[in-house]
Design the sequence.
């Protein structure tokens, strides 16, 4: 019998709520109708459940605890993550509560040596980053899950065993009522960095772990500074270490520093050691204020990934699939892209629209993304925490030069998480047609937001649709015969395709043959997508481009759709 | 073998300059000074492909 903690965790700013444990119907002889079980109600597990529900796929989400995450953890969401949250219909509360930012400042010997402005232009609805404690992220996702009739969120369920065969997966769960088996077609392992499912199936991650531990201390303090990422290299009070500072909602400040090599984790967290360091940080920020400690954690940097995220019928995602360095806000932001990539593919397989091989493309695309992040994140990590004397010397040389010279200042850039381009994906097709463009979004790239009018953006409309998106640019024309046939055929696919007409007469086209009309009166969409009348873009349901043409016909569009969806028909001779 | 590009007089002058630099940096900061100098010179060479062989050459017979 497993008894989860039934007391709300303590926090100086967050009111934890105990969610009720309920006895599972399977314990009394029932069998679940949900084809998918998601292990872990963290941000990635819940985002996957909500995304799957958009495609009509019911899920059971299992959470070991009775309450949301301990501590602010992930805290920083990138623009792409917020766009994904918008797409699955939950972004509003994140935006209302979170603190947006785009500026990072790095200091060395009391001097600002680097300033990084993360790119943002008027076509973006969201700023590059949004700080929000993970408790709130989870709270908002829990609300969305609980309001969704397709999602059965079960609290107090601990995975203690798992086995699988060709027919399905059997999960052994322990609960306050004892153990039971849950038999399902698919399991999404979103059970975090210490994934139990990864251990049960004895799967090994590849890559490396870096020496050096970092302390995170969240404090509540009245500090009068804007929302920026502050980095102090080698502050006087703690030579050999860096300090990162992030502002979070509710007056919470995250202080993150490397602990001295000769100090244990337990020692570093002792109040008599921690308090003077926090006081030194506040002094460094020229802030004289009282503070209260909310939460502490210790982490070390890794660049580790499973080599394959598909293990039979168990699909790994988020931290269960990879452990990435904190520098560059890569954990949850990578996980949300995993979830967005996995959800539509799993849905298409569950619904019988696609061959099971489509799931391999999830693994291929996301493992490639993780490896790219490991390489990039590894470089940032080596700068933040040099792994040897040599790396340390050259890092110090760069910092020393940064005080007076510009030529190597960009070494201080911390490479923020960005969406991966699935350039080599098998789901892309018609590469010659792709190469005929001189601009726009190439095959594999993520959708680019465009401002259509005051408070009106492309992703407000396009993102809400479920399925592939066929974007037809018509300029000031009506639909010609070719376009009529393209739209007609796309509308008859056995899987969802949202047809989007763009142009002055889009509404006329949409009246008969498209779900969405975008007038594009500023002609910005056409400009940003390098489109002329006749141009077609095909977007996968996760809004990455998988084909585009300057001019095409219905057969080519159907072929590209079947290729990207890996439909059963496509595989038949 | 690294190509000889400076005259012997020039090499001698440069060697003296660096020697004085090491002394001015002081024992504790000599390595840092030489690391900075390497980065600056690599940047001025403008061809990163030449740096690998130079590193290897400098590592010989230490």
Sequence:
């Amino acid at each position: 019998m497993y008894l989860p903690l039934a007391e709300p965790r303590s926090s100086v700013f967050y009111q934890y709520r105990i969610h009720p444990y309920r006895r599972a119907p399977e314990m009394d002889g029932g069998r679940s109708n949900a084809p998918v079980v998601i292990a872990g109600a963290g941000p990635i597990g819940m985002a996957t459940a909500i995304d799957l529900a958009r495609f009509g796929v019911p899920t059971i989400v299992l959470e070991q605890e009775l309450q949301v995450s301990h501590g602010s953890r992930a805290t920083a969401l990138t623009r792409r993550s917020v766009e994904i949250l918008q797409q699955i219909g939950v972004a509003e509360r994140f935006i209302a509560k979170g603190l947006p930012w785009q500026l990072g400042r790095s200091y060395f010997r009391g001097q600002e040596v680097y300033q990084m402005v993360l790119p943002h232009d008027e076509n973006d609805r969201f700023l590059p980053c949004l700080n929000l404690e993970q408790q709130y992220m989870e709270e908002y996702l829990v609300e969305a899950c609980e309001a969704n009739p397709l999602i059965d969120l079960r609290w107090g369920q601990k995975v203690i065993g798992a086995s699988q065969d060709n027919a399905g997966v059997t999960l052994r769960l322990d609960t306050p009522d004892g153990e039971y088996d849950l038999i399902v077609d698919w399991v999404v392992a979103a059970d975090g960095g210490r994934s139990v499912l990864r251990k049960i199936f004895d799967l090994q991650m590849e890559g490396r772990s870096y020496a050096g531990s970092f302390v995170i201390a969240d404090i509540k303090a009245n500090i009068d500074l804007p929302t920026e990422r502050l980095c102090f290299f080698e502050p006087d009070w703690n030579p050999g270490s860096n300090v990162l500072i992030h502002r979070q909602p509710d007056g919470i400040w995250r202080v993150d520093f490397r602990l001295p090599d000769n100090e244990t984790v337990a020692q570093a967290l002792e109040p008599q050691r921690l308090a003077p360091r926090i006081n030194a940080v506040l002094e460094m920020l020229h802030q004289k204020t009282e503070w209260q400690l909310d939460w502490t954690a210790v982490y070390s940097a890794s660049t580790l990934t499973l080599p394959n995220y598909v293990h039979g019928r168990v699909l790994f995602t988020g931290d269960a699939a990879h452990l990435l360095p904190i520098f560059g806000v890569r954990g949850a932001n990578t996980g949300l892209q995993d979830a967005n990539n996995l959800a539509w593919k799993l849905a298409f397989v569950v619904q019988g629209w696609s061959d099971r091989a489509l799931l391999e493309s999830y693994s291929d695309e996301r493992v490639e993304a993780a490896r790219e992040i490991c390489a990039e994140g590894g470089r940032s990590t080596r700068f933040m925490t040099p792994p040897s004397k040599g790396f340390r010397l050259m890092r110090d040389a760069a910092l020393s030069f940064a005080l007076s010279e510009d030529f190597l200042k960009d070494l201080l850039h911390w490479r923020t998480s960005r969406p991966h381009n699935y350039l080599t994906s098998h789901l892309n097709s018609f590469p010659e047609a792709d190469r005929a463009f001189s601009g726009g979004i190439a095959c594999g790239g993520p959708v680019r937001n465009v401002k259509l009018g005051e408070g009106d953006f492309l992703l407000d409309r396009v993102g809400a649709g479920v399925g592939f998106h066929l974007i037809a640019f018509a300029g000031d024309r009506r639909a010609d015969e070719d376009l009529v046939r393209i739209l007609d055929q796309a509308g008859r696919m056995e899987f969802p395709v949202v047809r989007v007409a763009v142009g002055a007469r889009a509404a006329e086209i949409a009246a008969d043959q498209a779900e969405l009309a975008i007038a594009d009166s500023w002609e910005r969409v056409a400009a940003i997508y390098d489109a002329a009348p006749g141009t077609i873009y095909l977007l996968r349901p996760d809004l990455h481009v998988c084909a585009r043409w300057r001019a095409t016909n219905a057969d080519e569009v159907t072929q590209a759709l079947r290729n990207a969806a890996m439909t059963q028909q496509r595989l038949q001779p | 073998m690294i190509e000889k590009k400076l005259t012997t007089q020039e090499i001698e002058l440069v060697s003296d300059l660096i020697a004085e630099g090491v002394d001015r940096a002081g024992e504790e900061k000599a390595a840092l000074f030489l690391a900075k100098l390497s980065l600056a010179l690599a940047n001025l060479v403008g061809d990163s492909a030449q740096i690998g062989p130079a590193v290897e050459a400098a590592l010989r017979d230490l």
Q: What stands out?
A: Residues 22 and 29 of chain B are 8 Å apart (CA to CA). The two ends of chain B are 16 Å apart (CA to CA). Chain B is about 70% helix and 0% strand.
